[in-house]
Structure formats: C-alpha cells, structure tokens
Amino acid sequence: MDMKDIILIGAPMDAGKRRQGCRMGPDAYRVAGLQDALTDLGHTVNDRGNVRPEDVDVPEHSHLFSLPECIGWTQALSQAAQDSAPQGVPIFMGGDHALSMGTVAGMAAHAKQIGRPLFVLWLDAHSDFHTPNSTGSGNLHGTPVAYFTGQSGFDAFPPLPDVVPTDRVGMIGLRSVDPAERAELEQERAMLADMRSIDENGIKAPLMAFLDRVRAENGILHVSLDVDFLDPAIAPAVGTTVPGGATEREAHLAMELLHESGLVCSLDLVELNPFLDERGRTAKLMVDLAASLMGRRIFDRPTRSF
After folding, report:
1. pLDDT 10s digits, 255-290
2. 43: CATH
3. What is the CB-side half-sphere exposure of residue 90 using CA atoms within 13 A?
4. Fewer CB within 10 A of the end CB, N or C, for the chain?
C-alpha cells in the first residue's frame, strides 16, 4: 500500500446552520481513534489541532445565519487547505458542511498550482446548491457547492482562487433536493446519482464512471463525506437525517473503490453532531470509513464494541 502523510485539521464550525453541536465533531473523531486507525495502516499522521475563523469586517445579515463567521471560516479553511495540501493528504474534521466552501476553494487553489483539474465527490443526501439569494432557511451549510462552482450571490465571500466547474462535481446519495436545485444541477451537467439509481444499479457504477473521468483528465479528487449520506439507522448523529441512505456496506465499498483509484487528495468529514449520537457509534463508523478510504481492507476491519 502507498503510505501517505496525512494531516488532520479540526474545523469546529457551527455557523452554517441554527441547530448547534457540530463544533464538537473534531474532538469526537479524535476520541473515536481516527489518528490511531490511520497510523495502524502505516501512514504518518500529524494532527495540527483546530483552525479558528478569521475576523472579518462584515455586518450580520437579516436572513443569512452567522454570515460574518461563515466568511471567516471560509478564509481560514481555504488557507489551511493551501498550506497543508503540498505536504500530504489533509483530512478536515468538521464541523458543518459550510466548511467545504473553504476546504474546496483551498484545494482548487492547490490544484491550479500543480496544474491539474480538481474534481469534487459530494457524498450527501442534499445537493447544497442553494445560493445566499435562494436559500429559504438562511442556513449557509446548504450553499457550498454553489459557492465553489462560481454561482452568483456570494459577493460577500472571498473571491475564488479557481472555480470548480459544475461538470467536475459528482453527487452520490441524493434524496432530499429542492426542485430548483435539481433543475439547475441537471442543466449544469453535474453527475447526479440519487438513492433510486443506487437501488437499481448499485453504488459502484456511478462512482467508477466518475473516477474514470477524473483519471482521463489527469485530475485530483476532493471527497466531501456528510454523515447524512448514510442511513440514519446506522448514523444517527446528524441534524439533517433523511431516511433511505447508504448502508454500511455500500459506504465501505465506495471508500474501498476510492482508495484503489489512487486519486483522492483530500477529505472532508462533516455534519457529525456528537450531541445526537448513541455511544459514539456514528463517530466510530465515520472513522472506519476514513480508514477504508486510506486502505483498510474488508477482512482487516476491527470488531466494534458499543
């Protein structure tokens, strides 16, 4: 197995939505043994602690929740990604999904620097393709894909170092997408695999097709894994549960295929709310999935005790 330098970066961001608890996510991953799981695979792992949002001179917004703090996180995480990507594989331990505005922007800057296109795999029940103008809730964790693909309405946010074109985004696990978001995404030619298509064709077919495209264009791949990609019966620690998500085996298969591709350059682990967990089972499952992505094989999986 190809040994990696893995850089753990905590992003205790809780500004992307009103329901609180994701700020506890980074420490839950630490307690669940993420560093040990990756070290046991032979990788070198460096935990750089938690990022803090930058101070920004932006007023609060009447509709958008915690806009200044979200902008501060975006700036700080973009810089953290740009600093760490040349040194290894950053794993961003979140934190709510608004953190991906910063992580993907930073990885896009890194990809531009090394002269390769960045692709993004979005493993999520939601497409997160609202803009600040279209979001009904005002929760910015529903907007990151629109931001890093260069949609309008993000004037208050830092300008993107490089846009990720929508046709370089693959979404797997969708099952709660607003009609306007779906229409826009289909028009923009994103790769969409909802749970019905996974029920009919399995998770391997759309993932391999997407990976073939990344490889054909000599791209690198950022993976953004939301807890609600998984079925809430196995991963209850998320405030945005949607029944009918990926099973444990489907999720592990996806991670194993991603590892075998050799294309993954960075990873987000997002929307873990330990306050809603049951004896840490969701955090442990997410750690197991990260280990599969970094090379743990099916018959090496440890016995779990709750």
Report:
1. 999 999 999 999 999 999 999 999 999 999 999 999
2. 3.40.800.10
3. 31
4. C
